Amino acid sequence: MAIYFVKQGNLSVVAGALIDRKGKLKSGSVLARLGPGDSFGANTVLNGKAWTSTVIADTQCELRSLSVEHLRDSLGEFLSERLELNFIVVALRKSAVMSQFSSTQRASILEAMSTQSFTAGEVLEVELRFAVVVDGEISGTHNGQAVRISRGQWFEEDALLQTRRDSQFNTSRQDNTQHLVAGETGARVAVLTKDVMVMLLNDMGITAIGSAKEASDYTQKMLLLGKVPLFRHISHDQLHHLIDSMVLQRYEKDAHVIVQGEMGSSFYIISYGTVEVFIDGKSVRNIGKTAYFGERALLFDEPRTATIRVTSSFAELWSIEKARLCQVLTEPLQEEFERRIKLQDTNIKAADLHGVKIIGNGTTGVVSLVKHRRSGMRYALKRVQIRAGRKPDETAREIDILGSNDHPFVITLVKTFETKAAIYILTELITGGELHAAMRQLETVMSRAQARFYIASLVLVLESLHDRNIVYRDLKPENVMLDANGYLRVIDFGISKRLDEDNGRTFTMIGTPHYMAPEVMLQAGYGLEVDLWSLGIMVYEFVCGCLPFGHELETPDEVCHAVLNEHLSFPREYRDLVGKDLMGELLSRRPQQRIGMGITGYSDLKKHAFFKETSMGQSDVFQKILGRELKAPLIPMGEQYAEDDPTAKVILPCDDDA
């Protein structure tokens, strides 16, 4: 058995494949297409089971393999331990409940879980919140149906996924899942008990949690708030305060929750039941459990734009009041919320836009400042030419990745327009210019405190991207912009890539040589760890004032040679031992040993002394940045753009169609 990596060629993964005598495929269902950078076989190796599908080469292919024997030689007695850890990490990432915690919080959950052994037929008596089978299997009944949980699969308590109404009918785990029993060969299970979950939530700062039921209630509210993009990236303290302020309200059938035209001050998340949305008396849609509405009322004094009526026998909704939100959020964060809510309007038509001026002109397209004719809202509009009847691959990737993004430090995609001549990408307008240009305004290199602000912000972005298995591949100051308050926005996702979920590797040599990791240059296969190398280069540039490898060199070949062969050294005047240690850990030539790539992920990186500030006491710099509680080191003076040409003609989608 082995894990295979595709270097060249195309393959198909086929279920139920029937092969004739000549080796040709006669029948079967194609499950997936594989190309350069993709991999297959990881699940077979990790689970030790037979292949469940057939992989067929559609073209001439070149593959690289990593055998089980090589894994054993490399990891020795630690192979089983590593495989078990992998099962738990994957389960935490894919679990409907546990995936709602940040990667740092999941690392804490991982450390708190214990592995227990059960003999054949032994009942799992422990009160489980979450459990992962790392060897053997367990079985039982769930809602009257027989269930079998095999190696690498997991169980999570239904109460965490139920609403309060649901739990009236399922008051305990035993009512739902009966007699979890170890299989014929016994089982080893990594478990998280209810009591340990309570302890973890308290360690996360939720001091009001005192029982398993309170922990379950808190987790349910957290899951609901996690469905709202606006609340996904706020500080832990702010999230805790919002959860504490949530009020459960019950409405009977046909009751009006809000009425169009009335002033409102409440935001709602549906916990149970269904409601119907009416605009100008006409039914628009029906929405149910976990859906939300009324977010504009939290920040704007304006009439409701729709009527919401209960259609189920009754409905239960959690509400948050505007007054409470204003107490919880800092003023800068309230302003950020206002900006993000305004950007949620996707009903914009191309004809609504008025071209103001050209503000950028790069290799991928021209960027214009445009203005909405009625609202006055300003946006950036990027025009990318369509060639040979198809949009460029990098543009399609960028749209795909930005379309699933909700991080406040990543540029916000509003909408796209497509004509026969071009594709137009409408995004938020970022007015503070490039971080690369702002750095040149400093009279000297950055202090640790200044660098910490920017690097911590980028750590938050990379953590969010890597949680979704997206490798950025071109992290550098030119791809980071500043908003009006000096906070970061990462832009230009054209060469980013979404990696395979189970064993994401890619081989393409791509990026900017000075910031490119050695393994990218060697084209030997790489993953998310390359972004951490680039981050290390940026730390060095910030605090040392130059690049660590090939600073004076310009040609790609010379830079690559320097990156591959030069040793990391520091200017004589740079004496910060903590900073040197962080850069050494990020710029490790062993990719998997870079800080942040361990089994506990970004938790290790965030705990590094570089990110500690004694003047903050127990406060966390990452939480303060998310809460917009820190003043940025550089505040832009007015609006700054790469280009500023009010005389050049702005081409809009309607011009292409004219």
Can you tell me about this structure?
- With 658 residues, the chain is α+β, with helices and mostly antiparallel strands.
- It has five domains: 2-75, Jelly Rolls; 79-158 and 177-219, Jelly Rolls (Sandwich); 228-329, Jelly Rolls (Sandwich); 342-431 and 642-657, Phosphorylase Kinase, domain 1; 434-627, Transferase(Phosphotransferase), domain 1 (Orthogonal Bundle).
- Helix content is 30%, strand content 26%.
- The chain contains 21 helices and 28 strands.
- The strands form eight sheets. Strands 7, 8, 9, 10 and 11 form a five-stranded antiparallel sheet that branches. A five-stranded antiparallel sheet has the order 20-21-22-24-23, covered by helices on one side. Strands 12-19-14-17 form a four-stranded antiparallel sheet.
- Strand 26 (480-482) and strand 27 (488-490) form a beta hairpin.
Keywords:
658 residues; alpha+beta; Jelly Rolls; five-stranded antiparallel β-sheet; 21 helices; 28 strands; 26% strand; globular; metal ion binding
Summary, kept brief:
The protein folds into five domains: 2-75, Sandwich (Jelly Rolls); 79-158 and 177-219, Jelly Rolls (Sandwich), CATH 2.60.120; 228-329, Jelly Rolls, CATH 2.60.120; 342-431 and 642-657, 2-Layer Sandwich (Phosphorylase Kinase, domain 1); 434-627, Transferase(Phosphotransferase) domain 1 (Transferase(Phosphotransferase), domain 1, Orthogonal Bundle), CATH 1.10.510.10. Helices cover 30% and strands 26% of the residues. α14 runs antiparallel to α16 and α16 packs antiparallel against α18 (577-586).
